[in-house]
Design brief:
By secondary structure, this protein is an alpha/beta fold. The chain contains eight helices and eight strands, in the order E-H-E-H-E-H-E-H-E-E-H-E-H-E-H-H. The two termini are about 20 Å apart.
Amino acid sequence: MSKGICDVHIHSWGKETAEDVEKAFDKANVEKGAIFSYHPHLLRDVWTPISVEEFRNSIVHISGIQKMLSGRVYGFAFVDPRMVKDVNELVKLVEWAIADRELRGVKMIPAGWYPYEEWLYPLYEKIEELNVPILFHCGISWGFPDSSRFCRPTHYEALMKFKKLRFALAHICWPWVDEALAVGGRFLYPTKYGWISSPYGRSQLIIDISSGAPMQWKIDALFKAITYLGADMLIFGSDCGVDANCINAAVNRDLMILKTILARSDEEIEKIFRKNFEWFISGKLS
């Protein structure tokens, strides 16, 4: 691509500096990227929830990088609802991360809780009010044990209640790709045909195409996704750390599938790798 790409799915490991991020973005031709705050137990002692102190420290770290690379880095607060017992405390912590530390979104992996549970509704209402998106893990997960049963695509249908809540489902929810696309259609077509109104004039849900599916399944998953939902509902994510080689490999793989194997147009590629990121972050069409 002649212009830099936008990557909606980058993990922080808690030690990166702004200089590290800038170098990696330059090398990988990343114009803009969403980087999640560090969850110290992800892939490690994953039975243990992040503590409030660890959460606050990770938010301070990523917000500092965002400030240094304003307009290029969009910090997302990795929110683990297990860290507190009272949803009102959770709401206050998220509001602090977004309103005080100026992060631009929220990352969540359902584990020990389902995204449709009503006790979470005050959190969704606050995120709507703050006008930031959520990127949810969807599908089988390596991050937390026994989390996949909480991350099924149909569990997110209840979020239709929150019409201003922009959210993405990562990994095309592999191995439940068909289920994910059915949920995507549930959000897309009532809006498209005018049966329900949307403040965005489009689906509030978007599908993050970062790979959960191995290559043998990824081609089929992307073919189904783009032919059924269209490029407007797909957004590129690498699911990498701050690692230029990893990001480059993800970009090259998905571009090869979309452009060479599936013969998609330059306009569609532009939406997936650039324009949809702008809408997801801001809620405004570019």
